[in-house]
């Protein structure tokens, strides 16, 4: 799997895997902060992480991805070491804020760097996702060894792996120029980006509701204390294999269609997790959920990378990535209101296809116009390219090539381009007075 990737992608995946081996301290942040500071620490970290994600996107306008990957990892490592040494509530909260502000800086840079690599983007992002899951499983075993020594040791090791990953990134990542925006106008998210981010937020809520509460649910249903960790490890080991096989079989399908169907399946499995009470059924349903999720890994990033104008891609990644920050805030409250986690997860997944679906041909046309820079920008577009965009965007059913589809799409192409295309219409000539017009 890794051997098939281009060298720049291999280097970046390797950097993130090194980082992920120690990236478990956030799961124990409440333990490290203590019972009295847990709620405040989580809130401070959540707000700071959202700011960090946006900061990473803005800085990509000025700095190359390699620079920000190194900066983000190094600053996160330093902040984690400060957190490990912090004494007293003020120092702990300040250190948590610094960790949060550095935590997401490298994320938009990572996505942008991978978007520049030649190859199928869903495969590249999928390899990154499954590699991080596998590294996280190993990191969980390391956390199990370190936690008895004290939660501060988790921060020390996490900070050390961040600094090591920063050094590897500085050594092996290629130097590339920053992405330069061509327009000096204030940036605002497009209709398409808002739609995708809304769908991504629903998906993230479903994902976190299952992932955060599944271990607790197993214990509540009478599972032995070792079973949640073993189940998570088994899911992490399955992910690379099932993800690779699934992507091979689904390569011909559009990303949004795969995400819509896959989210629906995840929603059904979350309902099984909610309804089932037997421990074996819960474990089996979760492993099935993890297999389906592994097939979807990389699809969200690929959708954004493919849809975003190149000059705006960093902002798109930063804006879309905020969906996970919103979900981190929303999920605990939603679970508290619902009284159970799995119904929240099922609702998030089942709502995702509805948000992914475009409202109709007019919305598709408007999204294409926005991508082309408005009606003026679209007029210079190539007719065949606009036609393909509209078909890929869902205006016509995939795999259908009937005359009705072509006429429907061509009508909207004329709206997008702002002028009819005489090449595709029958030539007309005028008959003498009293005659009728004939098509040649």
From TrEMBL:
InterPro entries: MFS, MFS_dom, MFS_trans_sf, MFS_Transporters. The keyword Transport applies. Keywords: Cell membrane, Membrane, Transmembrane, Transmembrane helix, Transport. The chain crosses the membrane at residues 21-50, 70-103, 124-147, 153-173, 193-219, 225-246, 258-289, 329-351. Coiled coil: none annotated. It holds the Pfam family MFS_1. It is a multi-pass membrane protein. This is MFS transporter. Its main location: membrane. Residues 417-440 are annotated as: Disordered. It comes from the Bacteria. Residues 1-177 form the Major facilitator superfamily (MFS) profile domain. GO terms for cellular component: plasma membrane. It is found in: Cell membrane. One of its GO terms (molecular function) is transmembrane transporter activity.
